[in-house]
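Hey, can you fold this?
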Amino acid sequence: MLFSIVFTGLIFLIAPPFASILSGKDAVLFNHIMDAVHVYSVSVIPWAVFQIVIGFFVGSSKTKYNLFITFIRIYAFRLPCIIILTRFSALNEFSIWYGMLLSNILTAIFGSGTLSKYEEINTN
């Protein structure tokens, strides 16, 4: 997780030169790239927590938990967040970006809770 935090900071530093290469002289495209990079960079941290939880369940051969958590991530968190944000806010393209960020945060919380409950059940 420390790697994710450090890498996120690094992304903020090197993103503008790369965004200007990708966008050429198009200022609107540059702004969209930078906005997406900022949201996605922050989204990496809860995603890393989710990956740690998934890794635990893969390593312990309890892959049904992975399936369940991933299903919840997409169908209970991500899609509803994106649908609600696109229909009831003026965020435009940010609806998708913030929907993904919010679903990663919710999945990290849900996955951590599932892992805690699993450990609680199996240590008693």
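Oh, and this one too while you're at it.
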Amino acid sequence: MNDSVLANPDLAVVDAQGVAIESTSASASASARPAEVDRSVAGSAAPIRAARSRRGIVFEFLRYFAASGGALGVDVGLFQLSLRLGLGYPFAALIGFSAGAMVAYVASVKWVFEARSVRHASIEFALFIAVGVVGLLLTEALLWLEIERLGMPAFWSKLGAACVVFVFNFAVRKSMLFRARAR
């Protein structure tokens, strides 16, 4: 914390533009004129909020990465299990994708993101799944482009597409579903 803030108890509480909102001293509240503002710290709240916001989004991104890894494990595990039980790969893929999406959603709501912008959980879940389906379609399009048009090996194409779709899913879900609501 800035030493001038600690040394001066009569500093005013200011908004991001440095305009006094309220004073912390009793004498200033009795006065009809606006509170005196120490301009050396007046705008300091905005950079602190921005730094916290950047740090918060980095931690959300890392938690999303971990949650996505867990969801992928569930997806692939159930896909493999379904195949061993004799199910065809389209149905096995549907089972794996559905279970993985559920894990990703629960982790996103309970652990990954700090804010939720949709009030109704059923709508939020439907939008979360819709973003996942768009991501799946984007994966298919990227695989077609990379394998069929660019002649890349399937493994590297899948890896590249997974990275692009991971960032896409995070960005869209963060901006659409898990941003702070306007007050």
